[in-house]
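Two records follow; treat each independently.
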Amino acid sequence: MTSHPAPGLTIHQPQRGFRYSLDPFLLAGFVLEGGAPASVLDVGAGSGVVALVLARAGVATVHAVEVRGEWAPLQAASARDSGLDVVWHHGDVRHMSAPRVACCVSNPPYLRAGRGPVSPDPLRAHARHALAGDLDELVPAMARLAPRVALVLPATREAEACQHLRAAGLPAQRTLRLGDRLVLLDARREGGSGTSSAPLYDPASGFSERVHALYRRAGVALAKGAEANT
């Protein structure tokens, strides 16, 4: 399956199984809004959407790491067909020698391992459940590699994520809560306390202007019928 979320941007995904949704574009826009980093590592990259969007936006050096090798040919095809340079790594960021960068970004699995039924599709299972490390392991791993970490998470995990970020020496500098469903965190060594809130979606008017603004920042059109991956 192939999609074109922006002019010149091609994303290859499995014919069946997990599909990206709002989250990667919101995260990319949020990162760029806070100041485009010189280099990025996308952790748990999946199809590589965040990495590709940031490369398209002009981030000079973009790396991406994914533990599931099935994504590798799709990632390579997407970068080739989009004319973008991304360095793809296959491995577990908790245990591999990953490059040091200016910022680590991640759209980690929403659910803890052992919570709820796990999909028989391995790509969907790893995208939804923390089968290769949860926040308590991923956050310290990212903090070792960068002085800035940006995450998109379900709102119910904000306190937990902030706790792990503070413990890793990266307190949240910018926090954006979108309705009661999603939270975006931009954590840095220097810390900060900028917190804002906005609606995510209204049945009468559609996605909020804040959501549209993040999409514009990412250079992506917000498709009708898109849904948050919650």
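The next record belongs to a different protein.
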Amino acid sequence: MKILGISGSHRKGCSSFVLLGEAMKGVKDVDALAETKIIELATLKIGPCIAICPEPCGGKEEPFGCNVKDDLQMVFNDIQSADGILIASPRYFIVPSKLQALIERLYCSNYITKYHNPSAINPLADKPVGFITVSASGGYSTIPLLEHLEKFCLWLNMSPVTIKSFPFRGVVATDPASKDTKALQHARTLGQTLAKALKEKR
């Protein structure tokens, strides 16, 4: 079992990273042999979609691909090879710019590929994904961010994982997350839920 965590924060090693670490502990609770990896977008170069490539993204040569060459390719490869995904992000205005750049470019490559080949199946289809959000002004203020992430993943036909704690569609935390004991427990529960979902699929 391979689980990939993506931290959308512009700050390395902070609340989003801490919450992902706790979620990965939950994954290990279910499968001690699971491979886990966390990518911090703050360390990578990911630019926005420029929408003016000389050749359409997601064409016959590289379906669901992107013509802008930067670290997005590495992230997309890791997402494809993972069995499940965890996305953690602070609420900025609403989404940190690097995470939004990743979202819009995967949106675009999916749209262009489907436009030219409606029967094409996105390599991320049916992949379980869980969401973790954090805000200095209080966890519940991140609900619009949760909705944004959920819509993005549904557009790619991914399968969001829910938990039994409000707001159900993911984890909300208050910054600094290291002091939000309830959110830390919910993040661990989310990791467990994701891992159990994958075990049931097998």
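Discussion point: The mean pLDDT is 91. How would you locate this feature using only the token line?
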